[in-house]
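User:
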Amino acid sequence: MYAMEQLQANLAGHGASFFAHHQTAGRGQRGKNWLSEPGTHIAVSVITDCRFLSLTNPFPISVAASLASYDLFSKYAGEETSIKWPNDLYWRDRKAGGILIENVVRGRSWPWSVVGIGININQTKFDPALINPVSLKQITGKEHDPPSLARELCACLEQRYHQLENGFFQKMLTAYNEHLFRRNEKVRLKKEGVVFNCVIDRVSETGELKVSGGMGFRFGEVEWSGKR
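Assistant: Predicted structure:
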């Protein structure tokens, strides 16, 4: 990742943002690729100072990035926008974007994160292997300018970051859960190959997905297996 290279070389610091018109090796969580047509999407990486946060709980920076993505997309796509735990931006049942955060940890300190956000803007044809993707153009019927939206996204992220910095994490977590995909609905999840039904309750302050029966799951413990 170019942003990480610049950070490690001490050539960039907090607030530096890097926009890609075309990604040849875009990445998502768990090694998945992020594929998109050149010039049709937002692909931005932003360096954030995390020294005021606790290394034992990195979830707050994910909340800030998720809310910033929601803020931007819902402005144009409307209230059917949601945040799918743990790191996706959704519209109805379709994926509009994703977030990948890479943390820089030095000993017991957590000085930096690189927040990577990818959002489908003007693309209308997708790889058949992708499950239910959607773009802003498909939703609105209009062409949009990705660089302008990327600047707007960075402004949204800065606003949410300042909320976090000023101690409003609980308020942000409440907003995150208000926009949580399939909250209070029956869904199917899969753990170690076993599919089970449950009702989504909320996401905790440490990033655990809480479901009916008081169970909680950390990222990587369960996968989504569709709506019941």
